[in-house]
Amino acid sequence: MNEEIIISGRMIPHVDPHLELWHWPISLYLFLGGLSAGILFFAALFTILGKEKEFAGAIKRATIVVPFALGIGLIALMYDLTHIMYVWQLYATIRLESPMSWGAWVLMLVTPLSALWVLGYFKEYFPYWSWKTGFVKPLGIVIDWINEYRMTIAWILIPSTLLLGMYTGILLSAFNARPLWNTSVLGILFLTSGLSSGAAVIIWVSQNHVERKLFSQIDLSLIIIELFLIAHMIISLYAGPEVQNQAAQVIMGGQFTFQFFGVVVILGLIVPGILEVLELKGFHFPVAIPVLLVLIGGLVFRFVMIDAGQLTRYLY
Amino acid sequence: MGTSRRQFIKVSALSTGGLALAASSYGLGSSLSDLFDPENDYTGLNLKRVPTYCEVCFWKCAAWTHVDKKGDIVKIIGNDEDPHCNGRLCPRGTGGVGMYSDPDRLKTPMIRVKGKDGNDTFKEASWEEALDLIALKMSTIAKEHGPESIALLKHGSSGSHFEHLFKAFGSDTIGEPAYAQCRGPRETAFALTFGSWIGSPEPTDIRDTKCLVLIGSHIGENMHNSQVQEVAEAIDKDVTIITVDPRASTIAGKSKYWLPIKPATDIALLLAWLNVIINEELYNKEHVEANTVGFEELKAHVQQYTPEWAYTITTLEPALIRTTAREMADAAPAVIVHPGRHVTWYGDDTQRGRAVAILNGLLGSWGKRGGFYNKEKIKVPKFPHPKYPHPKWGWHSLAEDYPFAQMGLTQEIIRASIPEEDTKHKVKAWFVSGTNLPNTIPNRPLLTKAIDSLDFMVVVDTMPMEITGYADVLLPECTYLERYDTIRSATNRQPSIALRAPAAAPKYNSKPSWWMAKEIGMRLGLGDYFKYDDFSDVLDWQLKKMGTSLAEMKKIGVKKFPRKSGPLYTPDNQPINLPTNSGKIQLYSAELEELGFDPIPTYTAHDEPTEGFYRLIYGRAPMHTFSRTSNNPMLADLMPENNVWINPKVAKIWGLKNGQYIWLKNQDDVITDFPIQVRVTERIRWDSVYMVHGFGHHEKELTVAYGKGASDTQMITQTKVDPLMGGTGMRGNFVTFLTEQPNTVES
Amino acid sequence: MRYAMAIDTKKCVGCSDCVVACQTENNVPTGYCRDWVIETVTGTYPDLAIELRSERCNHCAEAPCVSSCPTGASQYGPGGIVFVEHDECIGCGACIESCPYDARYIHPDGYIDKCTFCMHRVEKGQDPACVAVCPTNCMYFGDMDDPNSEISKLVSTRKYKTLAPEAGTDPKIFYLI
Fold this sequence. Notes:
Chain B contains 24 helices and 27 strands.
């Protein structure tokens, strides 16, 4: 029998016996960040493609969620900071090595753009406001200005939302020290998941059959890709060094197995995937069911990854 | 009070409100938080340093107490000049700050009174009140039963002040657990063999030894500072360490040979080693001829103890016994068969110590480089006082049955306190200073019975240890960092002295022991024995006599003096001159024979565990001392509780898991007050369990230590008393495991 | 200049003086620590090997805590000492997540704290508190760039190992074995 024990020291709050440092706010923030990236990406894409009319759900309706989601995400993120008075230090420097740093900057870019994006449609949301004469007149001028540059904003959003979506995963995968996270697939996996969540929201709010069908197809493809990426992640954990093999145990028989396979994989991916296939084949379900399943799956996925990842470590 | 049963009182029982009030006026709460105040210039250069020597254990390392601008003690660093520590304190010394800052400290004198509910309780008292009562009680009891009937039970530096008080008062009924519960047997054994005690620090020349043999001594887990330092130095020089221990101790892990002996069979191994060394003629014949007596008797005696014979007893391979014997002989005289320190194990401990001493005598390590150096210390002049009166009886009268007892036997003082026993000399009152008897003395029921029978009991301590709950008067002592004490002068390679000066004013309403002793003395009309205002007067007088002064010592902390007794190592061409009867190393002891004891040690079998029971082996952890440090916030942070080491095979049988809490029950059905965590480990034999001493405190006022771990002392209800000197062998206790919470009444 | 530490596991007895000396030197709050002691036991009774290690921040040359820090609060000091500038730290915890040795913690005041090799002492030419106090003298601190330093000599002559070398951080605590 071999032993490795702490004789003295350690058992530090939040660090031992395993990290309990990042909590639900981080999970929520990663989910909302991915979701926002997904929605904005599709909105920008279809704007650039000139499909503003057909894809109003994606471009005008779903995007309303984004500034709120990002706002809540940011509040959650700040809530988890322990030295909050110094938060401005984030924007006193750019550190490309640190995903947290460029993530903060991308957010700094995307959040106001998302707000402008939504603001740009205010005249359509509130057609009966007196835009020409009332006190909202100055706002109208701003809105006109936004719409003038909407195409530019869309072009900026394409790379920045992709970065944002990837960042939520790379943030974790850059941590060598947490073997469960340290897999290169995580960035693309989180991006896919974010896009899938975005597509789900679009399906939900869409009032257009063509749009809904297209996004069902898109979502289905994303779900399939996600399943492959998850398989890839598990395989690469097993192909990795000993610490990663052990890390895989946390979701492969360990304490997060049910949450991961039961909720994320089956309930969050496979079931909505099947429902969407059936939907495309002509069966009808309340649209909210697959959408909510995808969203819950995406959210739980972040929770599982944050919590399970912090269980895994190099030493002891 | 009086003859009624003595109820154990929770120290703050009476006046919780009053205490809280008092506490705030004494500035409680400023303690730990102050230490961690970021305003403190703890890392800067502006710290004042005051010399001290450590009181957390008995090694007494000299150090510098560092005080910040606000007057708070922030750290303690070893004194570079000190031979006890060489500038490096051990964790307990470094963590001594916690002893000072511990918010659980005793804060004000207390007196036992009857509460409204008829139960005993403590009342806060002024020093006047408390000291008056003590003086009154002492003189009343002395009038009726003689001053001899008041016993002093003590440990540590404070004890010496009360010892002076007691001797002046006419009582020599003094005992300390450090003798009969600890190192007594080895001192007697070495006195019988070499004519002198080993003493403390041990004169082992470990830094230059080629072979270090440890019999159950766990250096490294016991942090006897300079000794540990020298072992490390010796490791650098590729020393051969031979460790005999049923447990893979830390030092066993660093040993070339670890002999995982069956417990209680050490004498068999020692005799077999003697057999090999003699029969293979591995000893230095000239040395044996010139410096020893009784070699032929020894040779004849050990013939029966072959390694093959020892194998059947110790379970150690004969080849291993031979190899290790040869290693020792090869290294001789630079070899140390270490006398150990806590050696009260099986009741034949003096004889085991004799076997160790004889082995050293045969190998010629006494007085040699790499063996035992010729120790020396400097005498501190006595501050003038009248001659002590001659008591009619004293500790020696109580130890009559043990002809080789050389200090008071605590357990005999305890027995003499129980009136129904037909004793010649009755002890009526105790004065306890710096020793937590319930976690020190084996056979707790007997101790409680004795305490119950006392007319009066005073306890002096810094902390609300278990013993304080039995006091009639409880005196809060300030810690060593807040007081002057006697000059430290101990045997070493070179004589040296160290000063202890206060680095801060006593916290709360605590006082130094020298002051308490003096105040009681004055009240007893013994003013002539205390002709000084402050103890610093005594120190300055003594230091000036020694060619220095208090002022100089405050600057240097430690002063070394040249050797006067001769060379550190006896030259090879010189016979070693010993203060024994024969002037030589007594391999054969005529003194023992005369009194009907074995003149050369023999092996006797000891009790073995019955089925389902395991021998309880206890020891030390490097971050704790006795039971006194378990509430020290800094040291408790390192190690908050003890655990019980159980071999994986045993754990499997019992279905015990790592980290699980269990209760221990001993052969007398005594169950530990608190559960203890299981450590399943290969480091312990399957017939034994191991735990670190000093945990399982049941005094709730020890807010950090209360209920943490289990007390080994509580499990030690059986003792095997050494017929030579009265040591209480404590390793003949056996425990079994309870996985369910037993139905126990709180003790 | 490249500061490093060598720790002789053959001498270490696990006494934990390094831990408490660090706490008093650096005012580390109770319940927290910047260094700690690990024991490993391998084998079956009585064929056992016991190793004791005093562990702390490895002051890695490729420190993931420095690269993951979004504000630059985690940085390299003189001689490669890795430390946290408290006033630049936002307490995001990225450095804690990134450390394979789990050598950092959140100070009760909010910033992230860790071993600094006692930079304030090293600046004055003293050894870190843990090294200075060690009763077994099993810890050595010095400049790896100086071939004549005791630590350079030890690392070049003795067998050693580092912890979790596969994490790729180029740690600078060498365990002599």
